[in-house]
Amino acid sequence: MHEMSLCEGVLQILEDEARRHDFKKVSKVRLEVGALAVVEPDALRFSFDVVMRGTVAEGAQLEIVNVDAEAWCFDCCDTVPIASRLDDCPRCNGSRLKPTRGDELRIKDLEVA
Amino acid sequence: MCVVCGCGGDGATIVSPNGQSADHHHHHDHGHQSHDAAGPAHSHAPGLDAKRMIEIETDILSKNDRFAARNRARLAEEGAVALNLVSSPGSGKTTLLCATIAAIGARWPVAVIEGDQQTSNDADRIRAAGAPAVQVNTGKGCHLDAHMVGHAFEHFSDLSQRVLFIENVGNLVCPAAFDLGEVAKVAVLSVTEGEDKPIKYPDMFAASRLMILNKIDLAPHVDFDIDACEAYARRVNPEIEILRLSARTGEGMQAWLDWIAQRRADALEAAAAAAEAKGAALKAAADAARGL
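ok -> structure tokens follow
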């Protein structure tokens, strides 16, 4: 359940941004979540609602933007798309893959007032 | 509660090497960019309260990663090397650490940060084995974060040239996401667990540089397919290094000590090179001051 502390991290960023950009209310948060990020979207949504209660982002909508994953295939010597860390190379069926994209966990933008 | 960085809100408590609960008297020399970073000039028109979009493109873990970078820089400067030991509960991390401390003896300075939700039992065991230990109780937290570890540093007399073992909370999920400033994550898996753990919990094995197959002396008595386990680990992380050992019998311990020695040599060499470069710059400035 580290989704709770991730959401506390989100809240800290929102509060910093609220001071910096002088806004009082966040109505929407767009999060980019990579296919390989160590996070469960449902747990993230649940934690988000709980953590944001009584804050600048109370009741804010959480929009999760999925980011596809890619890996370097040591056999093809090329970048290939994957869906999970357990996938084989879609091109050569080899299993020697090193993910190069897909662990994103980033606040993309905010809708504020 | 620390008013500068708001710590204490994470519910963690830290117990010093002397076993006394600390009152959090840490030095606030860290940057805290997030608190006081100057933003762009505000240009909103009065009375205009419309919704607007703000692009921030900020990693959720950026704050943890900043603390981790601080920890890493601090350790690098000291020629110290931190290893973040991760596993499920009961894999034998603390026993492995006690055996490792005994085997290292007085050859290298060591230190241990123990992470558990509650109790100082593990730190007590480490101290009994002869190493200074700081216990961090994460309360409800399921992992150590870089901020807690940075504060734990302050409870050691110094970090100079130390091998710092960080025993994370027993959990094969959450600690994978939190960089603590370590040189490497070391995943400990025992043969009394399932051999498919590397594919059940791929994130942890993907994040680890070394996997230790512990309790290898029990292998003949359990249905644990060692080769399959190693193949699974390489499947999620083709570059992972693997050592088979038994902390109880000492089998494989030498290879583990050699592995640590290599990390330590790399850290010391890097620190020496940085110190030499700094010395050369100071020397050049001194020569210039004399008008040479």
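The two ends of chain A are 31 Å apart (CA to CA).
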